[in-house]
Each structure stands twice: as structure tokens, then as C-alpha cells.
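Figure 6 in text form: structure in, sequence out.
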């Protein structure tokens, strides 16, 4: 084989390796963008807490895989109406018994999750599963749960409890409002779950 041929072979090999490297980088970036879009703030939170971005992204992919194995389904109209009525009753009780109302709100959110097919035995498992479709409101749920835990120890003020109700409602409303039609819409773009446009932060009454 002549020297000129060897040079051309080397050039081709280098070009192939370069193209493969560029392709790998592009695929990695596409995956990263998809995960960031789907998980929203949860992606950023996990990246900030992890020392290894690749491992953190693999954890998010694993969450997607576990989620796909579940039978997550929207509520029927009757169930949505019943839960909405129960939520209004909980809000009314907040005036006279805010601590009790927050406990009820937590139980109501858990009940909706269970009926829709989400695992509810362990709080961290709930967060992991919810992050796949509700990353934008997951911090609301975390905050509500943290305040509820402090309330159980008598360490939460009335204003804290009011904020817990607001936080619980953010996730509750999303879980309640999903129907077969809008659930498909939420997941149609790169698997991304788009937040429901309903304002979650307004006052409870």
C-alpha cells in the first residue's frame, strides 16, 4: 500500500471518528434538551444536587421507564366532580381548623393519585413518579409536604398552613383536570407534560 493511500485511509478514519463524535454529542444534547423540557425545574434540581450529570440524567430516564410501566389514567367526570366538591369543603374548614384542613388536603391529593394509578406508599416514590408528568408543580408538593410535617409537630404558623393549601392545590388541580384529551396534548411534544394554565397561587377563598 502506497504512502498516499495510507494518508487517504488515515484521513477517512479521522473523518469517520469526527463524524461519530459529533453525532454522539448531538444525540447527548438532544437527550438533555428533551429531559430538561419534560422534567422542568426537577431537571435543574437534580443536576444541582448531583456530582455526575450523566448519572442524574440516567436516573430521570429510569423514572420514565418506571412510569411507562404504570397504568396512569385520568379520572372520569363523576370522580372529578366529587373530588372538586371535597376540596371546596376542605377549604371551608380551613377558617376554623387550618391544621386539620391541611391534613385533609394531603389525604385528598393522595387519594386522587391512588385512583389515577400512581404509587402512594412512599413519599419519595410519589415524587419520583410525579416528576415525569408534573415536574413544574413538584416543588409545590414538596413544600406542602414539608409544611404539613411541621404542622404535625405544631411548628407551622397559620400563614404557613395557608401556603400549604395553595401548594397542595397546584398539584391537586393538575391531577384533577387531566382528561384523555388534554393528557395526550400534555405528553405529545417530546414526551413533555405542559403545565395546566390554571393559576395555582391565588388565595384560597
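Output sequence:
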Amino acid at each position: 500500500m502506497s504512502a498516499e493511500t495510507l494518508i487517504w485511509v488515515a484521513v477517512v478514519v479521522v473523518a469517520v471518528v469526527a463524524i461519530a463524535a459529533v453525532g454522539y454529542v448531538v444525540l447527548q444534547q438532544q437527550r438533555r434538551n428533551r429531559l430538561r423540557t419534560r422534567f422542568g425545574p426537577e431537571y435543574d434540581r437534580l443536576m444541582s444536587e448531583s456530582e455526575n450529570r450523566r448519572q442524574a440524567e440516567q436516573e430521570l430516564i429510569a423514572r420514565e421507564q418506571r412510569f411507562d410501566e404504570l397504568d396512569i389514567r385520568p379520572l372520569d367526570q363523576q370522580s372529578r366532580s366529587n373530588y372538586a366538591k371535597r376540596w371546596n369543603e376542605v377549604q371551608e374548614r380551613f377558617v376554623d381548623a387550618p391544621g386539620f384542613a391541611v391534613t385533609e388536603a394531603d389525604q385528598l391529593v393522595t387519594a386522587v393519585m391512588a385512583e389515577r394509578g400512581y404509587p402512594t406508599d412512599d413519599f419519595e416514590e410519589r415524587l419520583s413518579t410525579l416528576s415525569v408528568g408534573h415536574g413544574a408543580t413538584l416543588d409545590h408538593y414538596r413544600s406542602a409536604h414539608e409544611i404539613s410535617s411541621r404542622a404535625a409537630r405544631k411548628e407551622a404558623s397559620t400563614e404557613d398552613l395557608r401556603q400549604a393549601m395553595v401548594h397542595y392545590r397546584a398539584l391537586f388541580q393538575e391531577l384533577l383536570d387531566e382528561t384523555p384529551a388534554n393528557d395526550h396534548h400534555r405528553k405529545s411534544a417530546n414526551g413533555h407534560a405542559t403545565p395546566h394554565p390554571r393559576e395555582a397561587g391565588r388565595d384560597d377563598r
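Caption detail: The first helix runs from residue 3 to 39.
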